[in-house]
Amino acid sequence: MLKYRLITAFILIPVVIAALFLLPPLGFALVTLAVCMLAAWEWGQMAGFASHCQRVWLAVFCGFLLALMMLSLPAYHYSVNVLQISTALWVALVWWLVALALVLFYPASAALWHHSRVLRLVFGVLTIIPFFWGMMALRQYNYDVDPFSGAWWLLYVMLLVWGADSGAYVFGKLFGRHKLAPKVSPGKTWEGLVGGLATSAVLSWLFGRYAPLAIAPLTLLICSVVAALASVLGDLTESMFKREAGIKDSSHLIPGHGGVLDRIDSLTAAVPVFACLLLLVFKTV
Q: Among the entry's GO cellular component annotations, what is one (predicted)?
């Protein structure tokens, strides 16, 4: 299993970086749209759709909704100054606070939504749609001045999340004693959380020092810490929904890694939260 994970990672990471820096805005939007459609297809299983056909239609509906939102905007104008995008990012901030409460009070909180397919679908929409617009808003950041500025920001968030995930895994294996959320994800520990945050802090310092990120250090620190914590919440939230659905992986699309949602669960929280803080709260535009 580890061999397949490493091989897949070595293939996917260069592809992701190439997509960030080489694709034009429309191409990047279409690739992200495809990823969101796959995520919606996988979410259908967690929402209670056993039928493959129903899940396909859910993915099509998600793609149609995002395409419709894109067509309602000026051509390639995906900045936070647009009402649809700023609203999606503020909604994301509220949704992940709600998700935090659901995780903290699980399994009691599951009584509110376990038997409601509609609510589980709404949770999926609140996870996937803001993630898409967070990706677009960050990629489009300062695009007229520097076409690669937004790509650097997205790469930064991804490294932050990957650092938190990898650091949590290593420190959890070496020092993990105290369970973080045993009823949601028994493998996660407080020691892993601290180790993941420490790893993210080191990456943040290195990236902020050598990459072209024009931002006040304190603002970067606040946005980074909150985004890293949000990434852990995103992981725990998907684990909670999978546990209720009785599944281990969202799908088996990626060898050794499970499904698309299993790879982007942390990013679905970190990206829109980081974008909201950076572009709307601190107004770094």
A: plasma membrane
Locus of tokens 């104008």 = 77
**Alpha helix stretches (DSSP H) within the chain:** 2-22, 25-47, 52-71, 83-104, 117-139, 149-175, 190-210, 217-245, 260-275
Going from the C-alpha of 230 to that of each of 122, 160, 243, the distances in angstroms are 19, 11, 20
**What are the tens digits of pLDDT across the range 13-22?**
888 889 999 9
33's tokens: 């749209």
- Name the DSSP letter for residue 285: -
Q: Furthest-apart CA pair in the chain: how many Å?
A: 52
SS3 of 115, please? coil
Q: For 27-76, how does the pLDDT look when each residue is reduced to its tens digit (9 = 90+)? A: 999 999 999 999 999 999 898 887 889 999 999 999 999 999 888 887 65
Residue 81, phi then psi, degrees to nearest 5:
-75, -10
**24, two tokens:** 């034009």
Q: Quick check: 236 and 206 in contact, CB under 8 A?
A: no
CA atoms of 163 and 261, how far apart (whole Å): 18
